[in-house]
């Protein structure tokens, strides 16, 4: 997300105490709304709602993400762990012999 654009707006408006994971969720919501507004070119909430459902993808905080048939981001949920190099997917370990 860098230190400009959306991040700078939030930091200047609300302070810089908001965790990056929360900012990412906000960014993704704003990106979806921006994409819908670009399609409708109107502030009519009914047309914006229709446009949200018709989005195929959106440029999210992690790059382009496909939208599902309900108009939600089709992202795979993962459990993350803080590693020496930053956040990384937590690999689940199971005792030997368990599926």
General description of the model:
With 99 residues, the protein is α+β, with helices and mostly antiparallel strands. It has a domain at 5-73. It contains three helices and four strands. The strands form two sheets. The protein has a two-stranded antiparallel ribbon with strand order 1-2. It has a two-stranded antiparallel sheet with strand order 3-4. The longest helix has 21 residues, at 20-40.
SSE topology sketch:
Elements: H1 5-14, H2 20-40, H3 45-54, E1 57-60, E2 63-66, E3 80-83, E4 86-89
Antiparallel strand pairs: 1-2, 3-4
Helix pairs in contact: 2-3
Computed structural class: alpha+beta
Q: N-to-C terminal Cα separation, in Å? A: 38 Å
Helicity range? 40-55%
Order of helices and strands: HHHEEEE
Largest sheet: 2 strands, antiparallel
**What do the pLDDT scores average to?**
81
Shape, please? flat
């Amino acid at each position: 997300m860098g230190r400009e654009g959306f991040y700078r707006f939030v930091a200047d408006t609300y302070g810089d105490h908001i965790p990056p994971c929360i900012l990412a969720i906000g960014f993704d919501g704003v990106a979806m709304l921006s994409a819908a507004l670009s399609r409708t070119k109107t502030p009519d909430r009914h047309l914006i709602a229709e446009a949200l459902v018709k989005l195929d993808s959106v440029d999210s905080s992690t790059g382009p993400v496909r939208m599902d048939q309900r108009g939600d981001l089709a992202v795979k949920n993962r459990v993350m762990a803080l590693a020496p190099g930053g956040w990384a997917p937590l690999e689940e370990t199971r005792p030997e012999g368990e599926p």
